Each structure stands twice: as structure tokens, then as C-alpha cells.
Amino acid sequence: MQRVDRIDDAISLPELTLRGIILGALITVVFTASNIYLGLKVGLTFSSAIPAAVISMAVLRLFPGANILENNMVQTQASAAGTLSSIIFILPGLVMLGHWQGFPFWQTLSICAAGGMLGVIFSIPLRHAMVVKSDLPYPEGVAAAEILRVGSASQAPGETRQATGLADLLAGGVAAGLFSFAAGGLRVLAEGANAWLAAGASVVRLSMGFSLALVGAGYLVGIVGGLAMLLGLVLTWGVAVPWLTAITPMPAGATLASFGTSVWSSQARFIGAGTIGIAAIWTLATLFKPMVEGVRASMGALRGNGRGQGAEEGGEMARTQRDLPAVWIGAITLVLLAVLAVTFGHFLAPSPLDAGAMWRLVACAVLFAFVFGFLVAAACGYMAGLVGSSASPISGIGIIAVILVSLLILGVGTLDGLMGTPEGGRFAIALAIFTTSAVVAVASIANDNLQDLKTGWLVGATPWRQQVALLIGCAVGAAVIPPVLELLYNAYGFAGALPRADMDPGQALAAPQATLMTAIATGIFTHQLNWTMILIGVALGVVLIAIDEMLRRRGGVARLPVLAVGIGIYLPPTISSALVVGAVLSWWLLRGERRRAEARGDDVTLAVAHAERRGTLLASGLIVGESLVGVALAGIIGLSGKEAPLALVDAGFATTAEWLGLAVFVLVCVGFYRRVLAAR
After folding, report:
1. pLDDT in tens, 10-37
2. How many whole angstroms separate alpha carbon 579 and alpha carbon 217?
3. Residues 573/512, Cβ–Cβ less than 8 Å
4. DSSP conformational letter for 317
5. How much is the pTM?
6. Which end of the chain has the least Cβ crowding within 10 Å, N or C?
């Protein structure tokens, strides 16, 4: 099979086509819904670039004239929209706070679209220095480019066309979808198992989650991140919770489960917030100098858009160097700022403020979203290139943003009299959450876009067309997010926020980041934030950073990603445990393939790369399959008005369901291992 090289500047192929835009929009709906469900359930999202590229190649090869650049545009559009769903890390806090009773379509769409499109605009001046001239690895971007190259390879006479990998993606999706339907729909399989034990005055929890989507997510995270999450899990449930429950009086009538969960959510979880916050600050500090240099170089290349770096001798900019013209960037930026101002104005219209005070707060919110958004866009873009989009600390950025904007609004609101009444105080907290939503949208999109632009650079795409595709992806994703959020909220509810009194809190979506950031914002405005636990987390993070720096200087592969430790602390243990299983499965599988290749005398690098590709597609399929079934079940629950309309068993089947769930979970993991290592 002939490998497709980078398309030359002199060659012009159809890229941004109508059929590609339509296909990208359809894929967008699927991956945005999947990411929203996964993010609300477990606090993680996945990069949709690779599965989107696989689906695009499988579909477009059915049409004449399809090419690698058209496939690249489809995955670019779908990837941007799937990434925009990270806004659910903070936006549900408005429902938890009681400010919203659902998700108003136009306000939700506007904050998502404006924030996401600003992320696209902010990433344009970074492209030249951070993508073209930089030696940053961009792991997801390089992997997506390689898949596009292999899948778009020309077919020699008599040669069988190489599979795109769609079969692996579908296999994972079907397996996880069936498991999720049996567990969440029929209720014949459990989604996890828990055991609560008393060790003297301490409460100990042993947990195992059976979510196949989490196994897929853990597989993509890898063994280093997985072991760091395991450390966070052990520190929380092996040290912090037992110690805190031992020194805290147990309320009368409380069970071990209710007492342990209460101590974890009100105290131990804030240790994770402190650890994540200091990890994000440390990352930003270490990247500040190269980030500033990259921005300066990129702005110089962008200025004039035709005579800077990358221009050919005749003065004409090479096709693969053409970004959106500066005049268009400026015009789009002004429009987006106007949209943000109108959106914030509409959000604050019911507040007990006069017009002058209200618009001062609107100006502060828009200015913060714009300035801090640009800073985190540059930082997240650099971090994505360094460690990949999935490992970038979006949660940490959100925590820093919600603290800073809360302090800003607290100061301005105090001067304007907003904090003088309980109603005004609630509006202030809500505005902090809403403003942070815009920042998270900017950060998440910038975090992903440079990966897409790296893919485009490697295959020879035209940058300005990719940037248009990214803007389209943000618009489509922003339109999908509000109805999916509304559907999931009404079907499952969120932790601490149920739309109906008769709903089962145990089935509520955890929305861990939104819960945590809402608690931080509320604590700042009410002066009741648990600073003790946050500072303990900061101190723990400093120690872990020092250890990680020592490991880095020694060289080798051993590292201790502090952000992952913090995530392991604040995620529920049923989530962290399944993630660890996926990470260990990844390590075990690739280690086994390496040994098999050595024994056969095969090229070890090629064998491992093949196994990695199949594993990535299977893992992505597990995530998408479970997530889509979760969204479909939400629709069934919403239409029926019943908690479990498809359940075949009652509560007495719970123990049997746990054992059955464990057995099927193990079988699927074994099947995953065997399929990846199947002969090529």
C-alpha cells in the first residue's frame, strides 16, 4: 500500500465541500452528545479527531473525488464541536445553584458559540510559531494525520484497499452500547460495586466501576496518567477520608455510606481542587516564556497576511501558509465581543441593579473573558502541543478562572451594591459561573484547534479553510449542547439538583467539575470556602511537583503528572477505578505486543503502532457507544416520565446484578485485549 505524502502547495484539491460540511455536522451531533454525557457522568471528555477521521474516510470513499484534504476538513469540524462540550465542566453549576431551572436555548447557545469561536480566533496567531516552526510533538494531531494518510492511500491494481478502522470503532461501540443498555436500561447488570467498612472510628470504601466508556478513557490516558489517578484514589480513600471520618463525629442516624460520602464531598474533595489549581498554575508558569515568544513570532507572521514568513519569492503567500485575513479576524472578534456583551446583558437583566451598575458588570465579565481567555488560549495551545489535548489541565484552568472572576465580581459588586441583598449575592455567584463558562469554552477550543491545525499542516491543508471549518464546528456544536443538556438534566438530574422530587439521587449525573467550581464560587461569595482543605491540596501539589521535577531531571519515562493525581482525588472512586483498569489494560496490551513482535522477529515499532491504532479506535468506540445509549435512555425516560421504564428486575436483584456486571465487564476487557492483538 502506497503511503500518501503531504499535498504540495502547488496542488489544489477540494477541501471545504458542502458534502463534507454536512457529514461533519452529522458527526458533530454524535460526538458532542457523547462528550456531554461522558463529561457529566465522569468529569472527562475525549478527543474526537481520530474517530471522526475514521468515519469520514469510510463515508467519503463511497463518493467520487474524495481526497485526504476533504477528510481532514470533516475531522477538523467534528473535533472542534466535540471539544466545545467541555463547557459542561462549569455550566450545569447554574442549575445546581438554582439560578436556572433548565438550560435556556439562546443564552446557552450564545455563550458556547461566542466562547468557542473566540478560541478559534485566538489560536490563529499562534499557528505559525507553535505548529509550523515548533518541534512540539502534538500527539493527537500527528496520530490523526497518520490515520488520514494510511486511510487515503491510493489503491494499486489488484491490491485490497486497506481498512479504515471503522470495524474496530463499531465493535467497541456495540459492546459498550449493549452493556450500557443492559445496565442503565434493563438494570440486569450493575454499573459498579461498593463496600463500606468501619475500621475503628474510620470509614473505608472499596469501589469498582464497570463503565466501559471509562475503560476506553483510561486506555487513552495511558499508564502514567492512570497510575497517578490511582495514587489520588489511594490518598483520598485510603488516607484522607478514613482520617477525617475518625476525627469528625458521625451524625445520628447516618449510615457509613452517607457519612463517608458527606465527608468526601464537603472536605476531602477540596484537597483535589487545591492540587489541580497549583498544578495548573505551575504549568502556566513553566510555559510563560515560550508561550510569549510564540505569540510574538506568530503575530509577526500574521501581520500583513501575505508578505510575512512563509511568502514565496514572488510575494504570494504559499497555500499552506494562508490564515484568515487580519481584517476578517478583527471583524469576527468585534462581532463575538458584541454577542458576549448582549448575552451577559440578557443574563443580568433580571438582577436588582440599575442600568449603569449592570453594564459595568457586563463590561467586567466581557473584558475578563476576552483577556484571560486569550492568555489561557495561548497556554492551552502550547500544553496541547506538549502533552496532548486529553492531558491538558482544562479543569485547573476553570478553577483558577472561577476564583479570579469571583474575586473581581465580589469587588465590583460590593461597590455597586449587588452584594447588599441575598438575591444580588445569588446573581453575583451566577455571573461568576457564567463568565467562567466562556473562559472554559475558549480554553477547550484553543486546546484542540492547534492539534487540528497540526494535522492540516502535516497533510498539506489550507489553514484558512481549516479555520472556517473550526468556526462552523463551534456553531453546530453550540446548537447541539443546549437540547442535550436539557434532555439529560430532565432524565437523570445532577448531583444536588433534581428537577423532580420523586427522582432517584443515585442515578443523578455527578458533573464533578461543575459541582466543585460551583462550591468554590459560592464559598468565595459567602466567605465559607473550605480554605483549609484547599491549602492542604496546594501543599500536597507542591510536594508532588517537586517529585515530578526530580523524575524529569533523572530522565526516563517515569513521571508523576500532578494534575492526574488531583483528578484522582476529586473524582468518585467508581470512576477512578475504571479509568485505572483502562490505563493498565493499555500498558499490558502494548507490552504484550512488543514481546510478541520481538519473538516473531517483526518490526517492533510498526507492530506497536498497529496495536496502538486499533486500541485507540476500540477505546473511542467504547466511549461513543456507552454515551449514545445513555443519551437515548435519557430520551426514553423523559418521554415515559418513569425512573426506569425498561427495567426487568427490582431492587432485590442488586447483588446478582453486581456479580453479573463484574463478569461481563471482565469478558469485554479480555475481548478488547484479544481483538487488538489479533493477527494483522
Report:
1. 777 888 888 888 888 888 888 888 888 8
2. 6
3. no
4. B
5. 0.79
6. C
